Amino acid sequence: MKDKEVIIIGGGLAGLTSAIHLSKLGLEVTVIEKNNYPKHKVCGEYISNEVLPYLNWLDLNIANLKPTNITNLEFSTANGKTIKSVLPLGGFGISRFTLDEYLYKKAHENGCTILQDNVENIVFENNQFIVTTADKNILKSEIVIGAFGKRSNIDQKTNRDFIQKKSYWLAVKAHYSGNFPNDSVGLHNFKGGYCGVSKVEKDIINICYLADYETFKQFKNIDEYQKSVVSQNPHLKVIFEKSKLLFEKPLTISQISFEKKQTVENHILMIGDTAGLIHPLCGNGMAMAIHSAKIVSELVEKYYTNEIKSRKELEEKYIQEWNFNFKKRLKIGRLLANLLQKQKLSAALMRILIIFPFLLSKIIKNTHGTPITLNP
To answer: Are 296 and 326 in contact (CB under 8 A)?
Structure first.
């Protein structure tokens, strides 16, 4: 009989969702998270409504957090040419500060053990993981789920391929007060990057953008870069001029990689951004993180009930499920991002979308999923 224990490394959106799912099924779950809660994170903070049936099944009442209801998309090129579309499924805006703490409390309520600690080493031998932490905790389990985010020291320690390649992307995020439609998300291109703007709870505007580091490093600070480069898009210029920064300073994260990642490495099952990062302009990273947590949790349950007979079968099924649900979306995201960085191609795309606006809805559908169905 297998010991029904799972170690999850990383207590962000994907890790906590998986912890809640597995603990709901009666498994013993330990989450190792280096940060305490609540904490702000660099994130677009928009979630597609495709995840709502699953969140309801997890007994998570997101409405209690008073998120914004988002139904419309406004997209613009660097020179300010704009096209608008209704989001086929719609979504909601919620800060990671609020959402992650809510998930943490739910996981704790479900009986999960949550260690505030850093993972120092992971060894796999004799079909078992031995995880050692900075505080000298030694944990053992047949299953380890990797949910340690976009870039981690664990990626370096496990020598993952993508970590060996230099990345030139930097992300910046901050909250603001000001006027912005509650029901809209803005995706605005600028030279060397693109920016997402939408409301979260408490009438707060979240502004999060991805920047080319080569361009960014030519300026002394974020404020100068925003005024000189980001605000060349007239929509972003107005937003920044009429909004007041609520953080002491914006949050940043560098070396963001959109290279392909392996879904399973060293027998660790990767979820969320740890398994693959979709370009923020697709606006679907949070929904993908939640969905990946569902997929891995259902398969781990089948492994522990012997419906899945071996680790090899578990890993193969997870890779297959990941590719079926996300491979196409990630590919389209990379294609769109590369296209938008080329001004002539970007302008040509905008002209086509203005003539054939239904194509924008098609692009949105191909970077978002359908409502998540629950297995009987």
So the answer is: no
Burial class (CB in 10 A: 0-12, 13-18, 19+), 62: middle
320: tokens are 């297959």
Tell me which of 3.40.50.300, 3.50.50.60, 3.30.450.40, 3.40.50.2300 is the CATH number of domain 5-166+256-367.
3.50.50.60
What are the residue boundaries of the structural domains of the chain, listed by start? 5-166+256-367
Rounded (10°) angle between helices 343-355 and 328-340: 110
Alpha-carbon distance of 357 to 210, in angstroms, equals 25
What is the spatial distance between Cα 319 and Cα 341, in angstroms, rounded to a whole number? 31
Q: How far apart are CA 91 and CA 47, in angstroms?
A: 5
Question: In sequence order, which residues have a C-beta less than 8 Å from that of residue 294 and are 6 or more positions away?
Answer: 17, 21, 54, 372
**Could you tell me the mean pLDDT of each successive run of 10 residues in the chain, 376 residues long?**
82 98 97 96 93 96 97 88 86 97 98 96 94 95 94 81 80 96 92 91 96 89 95 96 97 84 94 82 82 97 96 98 87 69 66 65 66 68
Taking residue 300's Cβ as centre, other Cβ atoms within 10 Å add up to 24
CA distance 34 to 9: 9
